[in-house]
Amino acid sequence: MDKKEACSEITLTAIQNIPEINPGDDVSSIISQCLSEQGCRLRNNDAIVVAQKIISKSENRFIDLKTIEPSEEAIKLAKETDKDPRLAELILRESNRIIRAEKGTIIVEHKLGHILANAGIDQSNIGKRKDHVLLLPKDPSDSATKIKKSFEDRYQIKLGVLITDSIGRAWRLGTTGHALGSSGIKTLIDMRGEEFDRDGRLLQTTVIGLADQIASAATLLMGESSEGMPAVIIRGLDLLDESDSVNDLIRPAEEDLFR
User: Fold this and answer.
1) Which residues of the chain carry a pLDDT beneath 50?
2) Which domain holds residue 227?
3) What are φ and ψ of residue 176, in 5° steps?
4) I need a labelling partner for 1 at 20 to 30 A (CA). Which of 58, 95, 102, 165 fits?
5) According to the model, what pLDDT value does residue 57 have?
6) Domain boundary among 96, 112, 133
7) Measuring CA to CA, which residue among 245, 179, 243, 252 is closest to residue 211?
8) What gap in Å lies between CA 43 and CA 109, rounded to an integer?
9) Within a 10 A sphere around the Cβ of 125, how many other Cβ atoms?
């Protein structure tokens, strides 16, 4: 789709009845089976958005806190933030650096480059495993590529895949959808110096975070608690593209006034 054009209609369809995902499960095959049972079929130029949690589960990113020996740094961090020292140790291991630490919250630069709370480590909706936590996928874009290839081989179509999570943001309360990984879909549209507004002024600062917009739209259907719908089809965008990735959305540290 030409970036001068705007979509007049898009549709979002939540994929129903996806079961609890376990380590080693083939997520694309499970989603395909659920699509068949739902009477849906992927089409050319669709985008499929998948919650990172089921990717992490399938890739066995579970950690048993009982196996973690906290370092002195982790023990100190835990005291400062009222966290379990074992969890603080995992947060340190998953992070490039700590950005801010306060009671109850640790903001980090994750190894993937994203700025987020508690290194994205999750303890909710992970299958009721006592003392277990779930880490983010090691390489969400690689996970997206594998899912994309599986669907394209199965259906003989071209599509894009996003892996998403929910994230809090500076300046704003509440969480929203956030793109963690991508394959085959446009993630960023830079209109600076190339497009004009309706008054004929050349755009100087307009950069559209398309992947995060898609992630947020999908999250409306995925939900944030017990909804159990971790995959959504988005139709009508026609923005398949291999030229960029989610990494292009990450603001360089030297341009980040808040890091």
Assistant:
1) 1-4
2) 11-55+137-250
3) -145, 165
4) 165
5) 95
6) 133
7) 179
8) 37
9) 18
